[in-house]
Design goal:
The structure holds 2 protein chains of 2 kinds. Chain A is an alpha+beta fold. Helices cover about 50% and strands about 15% of the residues of chain A. Chain A has 14 helices and 13 strands. Chain A has helices at about 1-15, 15-45, 80-85, 125-130, 140-145, 155-165, 210, 240-255, 270-280, 285-330, 335-370, 395, 400-425, 430-435; strands spanning about 55-60, 65, 75-80, 95-110, 115-120, 135, 150-155, 170-175, 180-185, 200-205, 225, 230-235, 260-265. In chain A, strands 1, 4, 5, 6, 7, 8, 9, 10 and 12 form a 9-stranded mixed beta sheet that branches. In chain A, strand 4 (about 95-110) and strand 5 form a beta hairpin. Chain B is α+β, with helices and mostly antiparallel strands. Chain B has helices at about 1-10, 15-45, 75-90, 130-135, 160-170, 215-225, 240-250, 265-275, 280-310, 315-320, 325-355, 360-365, 370-400, 405-410; strands at about 55-60, 95-100, 110-115, 120-130, 155-160, 175-180, 190-195, 210-215, 225-235, 255, 260-265. In chain B, the strands form 2 sheets. Chain B has a 6-stranded mixed beta sheet with strand order 3-4-8-5-7-6. In chain B, a hairpin with a 2-residue loop joins strand 3 (about 110-115) and strand 4. The model of chain B has no long low-confidence stretch (mean pLDDT about 85). Classes of the chains: A alpha+beta, B alpha+beta. Chains A and B meet through helix 2, strand 3, strand 5, helix 7 and helix 10 of A and helix 2, strand 1, strand 3, strand 11 and helix 8 of B. Strand 3 of chain A pairs antiparallel with strand 3 (about 110-115) of chain B.
Chain lengths: ~450, ~425
């Protein structure tokens, strides 16, 4: 029966080329759009590449200070000293890291020009929280961070841009008017893994004084705000409640040092899934979040229903053409259920072809539109030519999970578009169908 | 003719139902997506009150106290003023100014403050800029004649945007006096400036601002490393400016403990802010969705009419045998498509009308015109686009059908 079906499907596709093309393109469009949304979710939340621990990391990206009178409010990222003193020693998480993003202007001796490169300043725990692949050398150590050693880890493409080779370990690099030494070269991280993506990684303790002491150095007035984020790596996702309790204690301790203001981190830390729907707003309310999830769900449904109507119209038109064949088969004893099953199979095979095309189309759209489809939660500057890592990796978007998504979507779309017209035609009395045909 | 078309559609209502439903849904979806896209695009055209074209942010770095060569006797403001003076003399540079970290266009930081004028109060973003920074960003005074450099420092001038001036002093006010708290004796002179936004055109909350005007020395001393450094280049000198800047400033990039380490065009700062606030993603997605619904409508119409013309070859042949021209046969199919669109358009417009109140709430932006006028504007644009699509989707198969030879068509029958 199956063999017969496949042969017939192939013949049908060859006979009715317009229908086949319209059907496959219609399916591809729908699958491409739905997959685009699902791929974004996948790229933003799955454990991928250098962000291989996303499922058990939580982040604080903003803090705020409100004066006791309530007439003044200031919000920003966190001061490295705040994270170092109050959050890094916490016991619940497996590791805590602080990091901030900036632009590093370095002199490119090979091209004889200055380059603005994305730079991350961080601590030694960063290399545990994120899963980088070191091609050469090693990360900077805790002692080097504490000792303010001028070490820098560079991305592979950056090493090629600045030194013309991957093996840049030991090479000097001028940054902030200081000489840094390359201690490691890592595999380039694409920009959509925004927490880990950068060209240069340096110990935060080596930042110029106007950067790490912003918000506090003018009058020696310590404030917990600055330009760093804090990332917690949990031992298990179930540790979240314990972490929140410990954090609340730490925030209370921070506030004991102030008489005129109140420091707050709101409902942070936040998970990657939350950050995706909160669009960069760590204080996003639950209601707002629910509203956004509802909008995404409605959009996903529309992306399936509108093409399904389109495909149903096409199927109805073809059914009319094939009504004679259906009637003859019924006259020879085919059941209505058998006919519906056959039509579902016929269309499912064509739909799968459309699904594969849709998946490739979605990937191409990603490649063409770059990471503008991916909402950025963090500061990212455009990279110069040669180190542009905005392109989406094929194996990050096309894997077992996305293949399953495609098959399920094709199944759903097939049911939506084929079931009703097929059932209607399969149940029509033979005489009526033949008469109508005549 | 219309009655005839209606009869044709009604006779095949079961097969027309699908394409009707698709046109109806596509119209409603395009109305929503188009409305949002047009609404967002209209934000680009509002009067921002500042101009970032030909403006660069100058990135600087300070030496650490423990770094060899660090001079503890030098003041931050002196070093920065020396650098600013050198940059001012750089060919092509029109103006150089400083602002606080949270008081320049497209900043990602903010600081709030209440301003009081008699019994009225308003909350706003609070910061400071130098008079020359007001020139760099081309803030325009409401009275049309104030020169930022001429404002008297002893009167503590602050730039306040028009909306805030109206809120505090009544419609049309260009100057006024404000205080930072009710009891304080300290008064500031509010100078009104044009512009409908504080620093970011996609600001959902339409924040107000009040920027104090300070001298270079005072701002740098007060703000220290919170200060941001900007320059404006003459329009004709902007092409290739960054490359020439590094050449011309070679050997003069450091003064005391401060050094210039980078030059970022404000267009990049804006792009980064847009990305960070999701605007780029929003545009990309809305455009993709719009394109998707348009393609669906086109494919649906094209597919349905392709099969329809195939199935009705005999009918066309008969019509032509009885004297119809090819053009009339073609018009019949196109008319059928337009009739179907009209039948989907009427309930589509009704649903769009029900949704017209929802759109501003979904966008969280002020619309450029009253909601009713906006509804009709968006509906007109979407109708025009979908009409073109249906014309194309029906004309292509109709043209093919009209080419049929009546003798052959009737012979087949």
């Amino acid at each position: 029966m199956q063999r017969f079906n496949f042969k017939q499907i192939r013949r049908l596709m060859q006979e009715d080329r317009f229908f086949t093309a319209a059907y496959i393109v219609g399916t591809a469009l729908s699958i491409a759009m739905v997959m685009l949304v699902l791929m974004i979710y996948h790229l933003r939340t799955a454990d991928l590449g250098a962000e291989g621990h996303r499922s058990r990391t939580l982040r604080i990206s903003r803090g705020s200070i409100v004066s006791k009178e309530g007439d003044s409010r200031c919000s920003s990222k966190l001061h490295p000293a705040t994270v170092e003193k109050w959050f890094c020693p916490m016991k619940t998480p497996e590791a805590v890291t602080l990091y901030g993003k900036d632009v590093g202007t370095v002199f490119n001796g090979r091209e004889n020009r200055y380059e603005n490169l994305p730079l991350t300043y961080t601590d030694a725990a960063y290399w545990r929280v994120f899963t980088f692949r070191f091609l050469r050398g090693r990360p900077f150590t805790e002692d080097e961070v504490k000792g303010k050693a001028h070490r820098v880890v560079v991305g592979r493409l950056t090493a090629r841009l600045l030194f013309g080779t991957d093996d840049a370990v030991g090479r000097p690099l001028q940054l902030y008017r200081k000489e840094y030494t390359v201690c490691g070269v890592v595999e380039e991280v694409p920009t959509y893994l925004e927490k880990a993506s950068s060209c240069l990684y340096i110990p935060y303790t080596t930042l110029p004084s106007n950067m790490d002491r912003r918000f506090s150095s003018s009058n020696n007035d310590p404030t917990p705000l600055g330009l760093a984020s804090c990332e917690f790596l949990l031992r298990s996702p179930s540790d979240e409640a314990a972490l929140r309790q410990e954090l609340a204690r730490q925030v209370r301790l921070i506030n004991t040092g102030y008489t005129d203001r109140l420091f707050s981190i709101g409902d942070q830390p936040r998970s990657v899934s939350f950050e995706m729907f909160a669009l960069g707003d760590p204080d996003c309310s639950d209601e707002s979040l629910r509203h956004r999830i509802l909008v995404v769900t409605v959009v996903l449904c529309l992306l399936l229903v509108v093409p399904a109507l389109n495909l149903s119209g096409l199927i109805v038109a073809r059914m009319r053409k094939r009504s004679g064949e259906i009637a003859v088969r019924k006259a020879f004893g085919a059941s209505a259920a058998g006919l519906v099953e056959q039509m579902l199979w016929e269309n499912f095979v064509q739909m799968l072809l459309g699904g594969i095309l849709g998946l490739l189309l979605a990937f191409l759209l990603f490649r063409t539109l770059g990471d503008s489809l991916l909402f950025q939660n963090d500061f990212i500057i455009s990279m110069p030519g040669g180190v542009d890592a905005t392109a989406v990796s094929f194996w990050h978007v096309v894997d077992g999970t996305t293949a399953c998504y495609v098959i399920l979507l094709c199944f759903a779309l097939n049911l939506l578009s084929t079931l009703l017209p097929a059932w209607r035609y399969a149940r029509r009395p033979v005489a009526e169908t033949l008469n109508h045909k005549k | 003719m219309i009655r005839h078309l209606y009869t044709l559609i009604a006779n095949q209502w079961k097969s027309n139902l699908w394409i009707w439903a698709e046109l109806f849904l596509s119209f409603v979806c395009l109305y929503l997506v188009g409305g949002m896209l047009l609404g967002m695009a209209s934000r680009e055209r509002i009067d921002k009150g500042f101009d970032i074209r030909h403006v660069y942010m100058v990135d600087y770095a300070m030496l650490d106290p423990e770094t060899p060569g660090y001079r503890p006797d030098l003041k931050f403001e002196d070093d920065m003023e020396t650098l600013a003076e050198r940059v001012r003399r750089c060919p092509g540079v029109e103006a150089v100014g400083f602002t606080q970290l949270w008081s320049f266009p497209y900043t990602l930081n903010n600081q709030g403050q209440m301003l009081y004028a008699d019994t009225l109060a308003a909350s706003m973003m609070w910061g400071a800029i130098t008079a020359e920074a007001a020139e760099v960003f081309r803030y325009r005074p409401l009275d049309g004649q104030t020169r930022w450099g001429d404002l008297r420092p002893d009167r503590k001038p602050i730039l306040v945007r028009r909306r805030t001036m109206n809120k505090l002093f009544g419609e049309g006010a260009v100057r006024g006096t404000v205080k930072l708290d009710k009891e304080s004796g300290q008064r500031y002179e509010a100078v009104g400036v044009y512009g409908d936004i504080a620093c970011y055109e996609y600001d959902r909350y339409m924040t107000d601002f009040a920027w104090q005007i300070l001298s270079d020395e005072e701002l740098l001393r007060q703000t220290h490393v919170y200060s941001c450094f900007f320059l404006r280049v003459r329009e004709e000198a902007d092409e290739g400016f960054a490359g020439r800047f590094w050449e011309q400033m070679k050997g003069r990039l450091s003064a005391g403990n401060a050094s210039i380490v980078g030059l970022t065009p404000m267009s990049d700062v804006r792009r980064n802010t847009n990305r960070l606030w999701g605007i780029t993603t929003y545009y990309a997605f809305a455009s993709l969705l719009g394109g998707f619904f348009l393609l669906c409508a086109l494919l649906g119409t094209l597919g349905t009419f392709w099969f329809r013309t195939e199935a009705r070859t005999t009918e066309v042949g008969l019509r032509m045998a009885l004297g119809s021209t090819r053009r009339q046969a073609c018009t019949l199919y196109v008319g059928e498509g337009l009739m179907l669109l009209a039948m989907a358009w009427v309930p589509g417009m009704a649903v769009a009308w029900l949704l017209h109140d929802v759109m501003p709430a979904m966008m969280e932006y002020e619309l450029p015109m009253p909601p009713v006028a906006w509804h009709f504007f968006v509906a007109a644009v979407v109708t025009a686009i979908i009409l073109l699509l249906v014309l194309l989707g029906t004309w292509l198969p109709a043209r093919r059908a009209a080419r049929v030879n009546p003798v052959e068509a009737l012979h087949e029958e």
